[in-house]
Design brief:
This is histidine kinase. This protein is of the alpha/beta class and 562 residues long. Helix content is 44%, strand content 18%.
Length: 562
C-alpha cells in the first residue's frame, strides 16, 4: 500500500474562536461554515431526507465538512482548548444550559502533534486510537497552530488500492450497535450517545425477539443543530428527525464500496444488514482506517513475529481470565444496594488500568513492526521487556480481583497458627528492604513480653505487606517507614507510619471502598483494590483497622485484634 503524504491530510482552515466567545455564537459559526440553512421548509430531493431538520447543502468534500464538527479555542495564536459535537451532546444530555462562554466547557488538555513528528498518517492513527479522539491539531515548533487532522482528512488522502477491495465489511464492522425505537424522544437519544460515547443512534423497529430492522439514523450533528434551532428535544421523537431512507451494506460488501459510498453520499456511518434486512452492525470511517492500519503493520520482522504472537496469546488469556472474574464480581454486586455505582467504578478502573499497559504493548509492537530492521538488538530487547512488564501489570490486577472475591464473608475460613510476631515482622521488613533497593529507611519497634500469638499467617502477611508497600510507594525517597508492634494480655496492635503525600480529608471516608483512589495519586499506578482486600482480611480475623492522615505530612494505619 502506498502510504499517503501526511501533509495532504492536514486541513489548514479549522474553525477558531477565543475563550470568551459565547457558546451559542460558536454553534452558529459551526453551522454557517457547514453551509446549513436554518429556515424550516420543504426538503430537497436528496439521498437522505429529514422531515424536521432544515435543508443541508453539503460541501464538495466530506472531510472539510467533518473538520468543522469541532472548534479550536485560541488565545494569542496558542491553543487553549477544543470543543467538539460530542461535548455539546453531553451538555444537552445532562440538561446544562448553553448560555456560557466557550471557556466554560472546552477541553483544556488538548492532544496535539508537531509537524516535525508527523512522519506518516499512522502516527496520527495511533494517537486517535490511544487517546480515543477524532480531532488532532497540528502545530509548529513554537506550538502555534498549522491545521487539523481527522479520520476523514486521512481517508481523503488515501489513494484507491486493491487492499480495500480485498477486505470485507464483516471484517471491520462494529457489531454492538446502539439503537432505539422510532418513538424515542431526541433528548433520550442524546443521553444514549453520552452514556455509550457514540456519535450516532440507529432507529429501529422490532423484527422478532432478537432482531431489529433499521429505519433511519440520528447523529451528534443532528442534535447540535436542533439545539441551535431551539427545539424542545424532550418533545421531538426520533422518527420525525431521523435521516432516511438508509443506504445499507451487506457483510460481504468490500471496504472499497463502503469507502466510495461515504465519499459520494457525504456520510460517516453506514448500516450493515442481513438478508432479511435485520440490523447486523455499523461501519464508520474509523473502522476503515483501522483496517488499513492493521494491514500496514502486519509487515512485521520475521525474527520478532514469534515474540509478538506469544505476548498476544498471553494478553488474550489475561483478558479471558478478567472476563470470567468480571462476571463473577457482577453476580456478587447484584445482591448489594450500591450495584450501579460499583459497576461504574469497576469499568472505569479496568479501562484505566488496562489502557496504559495495552498502549505500551501496542506502541512497542508497532515500533518493532515499523522500524524493526533499523533497531539495535538492545533497543529490541527494551521493547520486548516493555511488553512483558505491561502483561505482568495486567496479571497482577487480575490476581487482586481474584483475591477480593475470595475474601467475601462465607467464602473462606481462617487457619490460625502460633506465630512469633516480632520475628515475623522483622523478616517481612528485610524482604521489603531488599526489593526496595535501599531507597527508603525502615524502622521496627516492638513493645511487649509475649511473642507467640495465633494468626492466619498468609492473611497477616498480605495485610502488613500491602500497608508497607503503599507506605513506600507514596513516600519520597530517603524517608523512613515505621512498623510498630504492641502485644499485651488483651490486645495486639500494629501501626504502619510513613511520611508520604497523605490522603485528602474528602477521600478518607472512601479509602476502603473497592476501586477508590485518592485525588492526589497523580501518575502513581494502582487498582484501588489493596485497602479493600486488607479491610476484608482484618474483619475476617475479628480485628479493626483505622488511619489518620495529613497532606504533605504522612499517614498512619492502625489495626488491632483483641
Amino acid at each position: 500500500m502506498d502510504v499517503p503524504n501526511p501533509e495532504h491530510a492536514i486541513y489548514c482552515q479549522p474553525l477558531i474562536v477565543s475563550p470568551s466567545t459565547p457558546l451559542l455564537e460558536m454553534l452558529l459559526l459551526m453551522n454557517q461554515i457547514r453551509g446549513r440553512s436554518y429556515a424550516l421548509g420543504n426538503q430537497t430531493e436528496d439521498n437522505y431526507k429529514n422531515s424536521l431538520l432544515p435543508n443541508i447543502y453539503l460541501s464538495s468534500d466530506l472531510a472539510d465538512y467533518e473538520v468543522n464538527s469541532c472548534v479550536l479555542v485560541l488565545e494569542e495564536d496558542y491553543i487553549k482548548g477544543i470543543v467538539t459535537e460530542r461535548d455539546i451532546v453531553k451538555l444537552v444530555a445532562t440538561g446544562q444550559k448553553l448560555t456560557v462562554p466557550v471557556s466554560a466547557i472546552m477541553t483544556q488538555e488538548v492532544i496535539t502533534l508537531s509537524l516535525s513528528q508527523f512522519k506518516d498518517v499512522f502516527v496520527a492513527l495511533n494517537l486517535f486510537h490511544r487517546h480515543q479522539i477524532r480531532h488532532l491539531p497540528i502545530v509548529n515548533e513554537q506550538d502555534k497552530l498549522i491545521g487539523i487532522v481527522t479520520p476523514g482528512t486521512i481517508r481523503r488522502s488515501l489513494q484507491p488500492t486493491s487492499l480495500l477491495a480485498m477486505r470485507r465489511v464483516s471484517d471491520v464492522m462494529t457489531k454492538q450497535v446502539i439503537h432505539a425505537a422510532a418513538n424515542t424522544c431526541v433528548l433520550d437519544l442524546a443521553r444514549l450517545m453520552n452514556q455509550h460515547q457514540v456519535s450516532c443512534i440507529v432507529i429501529t423497529s422490532q423484527l422478532n425477539s432478537q432482531q431489529f430492522i433499521p429505519l433511519g439514523i440520528v447523529t451528534e450533528r443532528d442534535i447540535v443543530q436542533m439545539q441551535i434551532l431551539g427545539l424542545d428535544l424532550a418533545q421531538v421523537s426520533a422518527e420525525t428527525v431521523m435521516s432516511q431512507p438508509l443506504f445499507c451494506l451487506s457483510p460481504e460488501d468490500s471496504l472499497w464500496l463502503a469507502h466510495k459510498e461515504m465519499q459520494q453520499r457525504f456520510i460517516r456511518h453506514l448500516v450493515v444488514v442481513g438478508k432479511a434486512g435485520e440490523l447486523l452492525g455499523i461501519v464508520t470511517q474509523s473502522n476503515i482506517l483501522r483496517s488499513l492500519d492493521s494491514i500496514e503493520l502486519c509487515n512485521v520482522v520475521e525474527t520478532l513475529q514469534q515474540v509478538v504472537e506469544q505476548q498476544t496469546t498471553e494478553l488474550v488469556r489475561a483478558n479471558q481470565q478478567l472476563q470470567q472474574q468480571t462476571e463473577e464480581v457482577y453476580r456478587t454486586l447484584e445482591k448489594e444496594q450500591e450495584l450501579n455505582q460499583l459497576k461504574s467504578q469497576f469499568i472505569s478502573m479496568v479501562f484505566h488500568e488496562f489502557r496504559n499497559p495495552l498502549s505500551a504493548i501496542l506502541m512497542s509492537v508497532q515500533s518493532i513492526q515499523i522500524h524493526g530492521s533499523r533497531l539495535s538488538e538492545a533497543r529490541k530487547d527494551k521493547f520486548i521487556e516493555q511488553i512483558q512488564n505491561s502483561a505482568q501489570q495486567m496479571l497482577r490486577l487480575i490476581e487482586d480481583l481474584l483475591v477480593i472475591d475470595k475474601t467475601e464473608p462465607g467464602k473462606v475460613q481462617a487457619n490460625p497458627v502460633p506465630i512469633n510476631l516480632p520475628y515475623f515482622c522483622q523478616h517481612l521488613l528485610e524482604e521489603l528492604q531488599f526489593s526496595d533497593e535501599n531507597r527508603h529507611q525502615f524502622s521496627f519497634i516492638y513493645h511487649g513480653k509475649q511473642e507467640f500469638v495465633n494468626f492466619d499467617q498468609q492473611w497477616l502477611r498480605y495485610i502488613l505487606a500491602n500497608l508497607l508497600y503503599n507506605a513506600l510507594k507514596y513516600s519520597p525517597q530517603g524517608s523512613t517507614v515505621k512498623l510498630l508492634l504492641s502485644i499485651d494480655t488483651t490486645e495486639v496492635t500494629f501501626q504502619v507510619v510513613d511520611r508520604g503525600i497523605g490522603i485528602h480529608s474528602e477521600d478518607q471516608l472512601n479509602m476502603f471502598k473497592p476501586f477508590y483512589r485518592g485525588k492526589n495519586v497523580n501518575s502513581i499506578t494502582g487498582s484501588g483494590l489493596g485497602l479493600a482486600i486488607v479491610k476484608n482480611y482484618v474483619e475476617l480475623l475479628k480485628g479493626q483497622i483505622s488511619f489518620t492522615s495529613e497532606i504533605g505530612v504522612g499517614t498512619t494505619f492502625k489495626l488491632f485484634r483483641i
